[in-house]
Specification:
CATH architecture of the largest domain: 2-Layer Sandwich
Number of strands: 16
Strand content: 15-25%
Structural class: alpha/beta
Shape: globular
Order of helices and strands: HEHEHEHEHEHEHHEEEEEEEEEHHE
Number of helices: 10
Number of domains: 2
CATH superfamily of the largest domain: Dihydrodipicolinate Reductase, domain 2
Radius of gyration: 21 Å
Strand order of the largest sheet: 15-14-13-12-6-11-10-7-16
């Protein structure tokens, strides 16, 4: 994430010109001086430190960007808000909804710009789906089906990342990747009212890491001492939305052959939409009003005539990558800081997503439908 965010701040003005602002990369923080120095050199930051409080206390710094493990999010974000700094935080907003609420209250009290980095909604094809929905092109939404399938942790001998430890991560697949599906569902369909879930933990322990950084699913053999995995590997959930739609979502990090398989299919009274992030230049659309002998899914390729397209590449289907979603995220953040437009998703979205995530986990434990409390946004624009 340090690489992705650094690249986005540097290249955003190259795409969105005139840019709302040209970010100055003042200070980068890492856990050791060697790692911090390397990051500063590699990603072109002016200086480096191992002390995150130095960034909070620096009067020349306006924005704090949090890309740490989840258990550090709240402390840093709250301190940043109290110091009058704007804040963007990687997802999930916090390990628990309680901490997410504390972060939200801090930024609201301080009146600072705040954002949570659910960058997949920045994919132009996803934004195009949102446009079609808002225009009424698929009518009243009846059904949402979302997935996020990965295989990076399917090997039981892959190392014990912090993502497998509840005291650091808060949850497993639900918070790590399921939260992205929840964000897409909320963005495209609306608020989720109830959930019922099957939550599973398939791999009970993993080899302890020996390296000084998070190795994720590769790079270390499965020998030596092992540590307990105390978070979920998979969640399968049924959804009821407040506006009457129904849906489902599946999140797993144990799906061999699936790399970053984020999909959604949305059915409405006037048509359907389908998206697969592994083919992220494409949106599949089907409309009821097509002649019967032409009715079916067809492909719309994103490009200059679709959301954010004029700033990206001049030819449809030329290729949108993960980096572009982060560039768009940086653009929207700078627009918010300079007062051009409010930004979503913000900390209230991160908190509401945390409420859904906790309801999924609670339902998995109880086997019952679980109600999701609704947070009423403040100063909604």
């Amino acid at each position: 994430m340090g690489k992705a965010h650094s690249m986005a701040y540097a290249t955003m003005p190259m795409f969105f010109w005139p840019a709302p602002a040209r970010p100055v990369k003042k200070l980068i923080v890492d856990v050791t001086d060697e790692l911090a120095h390397t990051a500063a050199e590699r990603y072109a930051w002016e200086s480096h430190t191992t002390n995150w409080e130095a960034a909070i206390n620096d009067p020349e710094i306006d924005l704090i960007d949090i890309a740490t493990p989840n258990n550090m999010h709240a402390e840093i974000a709250i301190a940043a808000a109290e110091a009058g700094k704007h804040v963007i935080c990687e997802k999930p907003l916090a390990p628990t909804a309680k901490e997410a609420r504390e972060m939200l209250e801090a930024v609201e009290k301080a009146g600072v710009v705040n954002a949570v980095a659910f960058n997949y909604r920045r994919t132009p094809a996803v934004a195009l789906a949102k446009r079609y929905i808002d225009e009424g092109a698929i009518g009243e939404i009846l059904n949402f089906r979302g997935t996020y399938l990965q295989d990076w942790s399917a090997d039981p001998d892959s190392p014990l990342s912090w993502r497998f430890q509840k005291k650091i991560a808060g949850s497993g697949a639900v918070g790590d990747i399921g939260s992205h599906v929840v964000d897409l569902a909320r963005y495209l369909v609306g608020e989720i009212e109830e959930v019922t879930s099957v939550v599973s933990n398939f791999i009970k322990d993993r080899p302890l890491q020996t390296s000084g950084f998070d190795a994720l699913g590769a790079g270390e053999a499965g020998r030596g001492p092992r540590g307990a995995v105390d978070v979920d590997d998979e969640a399968m959930t049924l959804l009821r939305f407040r506006d009457g739609a129904v849906g489902s979502m599946e999140a797993t990090r144990n799906a061999w052959g699936r790399n970053n398989f984020i999909t959604f299919e949305i059915h409405g009274t006037e048509g359907s939409l389908y998206f697969n992030y592994e083919k992220r230049d494409e949106l599949q659309v089907a409309f009821k009003n097509e002649p019967a002998d032409r009715r079916g899914f067809r492909t719309v390729y994103t490009g200059p005539n679709t959301p954010y397209g004029e700033a990206l590449w001049p030819i449809p289907a030329l290729g949108i990558g993960y980096g572009e979603t982060k560039i768009i995220e940086a653009y929207e953040l700078m627009r918010a800081i300079t007062g051009e437009a409010p930004i979503r998703p913000d900390f209230s979205d991160g908190y509401q997503t945390a409420l859904v995530d906790e309801a999924i986990l609670a339902s998995g434990a109880s086997g019952q439908w679980q109600n999701v409390p609704l947070y009423e946004r403040q100063n909604l624009t």
